[in-house]
Design goal:
Elements (H helix, E strand, L loop, with lengths): L1 H13 L2 H8 L3 H10 L1 H31 L3 H11 L12 H12 L3 H14 L4 H14 L1 H5 L4 H17 L7
Amino acid sequence: MKNKAEVIKCLKKTGIVQIACQQAGISRATFYRWLENNEKFKKKVDKAKKEGFDVINDLTESQLIKAIKDGNPTAIFYRLNHCHPAYSDKRLYLSNSDQKQLIDDISTSNIKNILEILMEKLIKGEISKSAANQVILMINKIYPQEVNSLRQQEIRKTLNEMSDLINELSPNSNRK
């Protein structure tokens, strides 16, 4: 059908179903009915959408590069933050059970457990050095007496080891 071919042609340009349907003069309901009832059409749609997304990604990337060349600080920050390992900041995403465990550890002053988890995630690259530093600062603020007490020498030692590790992992460190 002519409309199906038109949809595929439009999808190759943008990858967006709504735009392809409008340009082909069909409703989204019709499009999804065709998709559901015709495996050959579905395969063509999948391929065309990927091609369209690639076109838009290329266009977006070229605009980003143009903005960087024009000195746009937001574009520069975005590119460095997402594409350069020395500037990117890996995010730590905790599962619900990990979040509950962290809250329980904080509320019961189980600082040692918090630091062990933090160090493990830092070494695995699951958390950035800046995030680790923030947690260390938070622990020092919340539990200054525990951290400073003589009974907590092991925790202070672990905090110092973590700070040393963070400094070692810094891309600007002078290690050989």
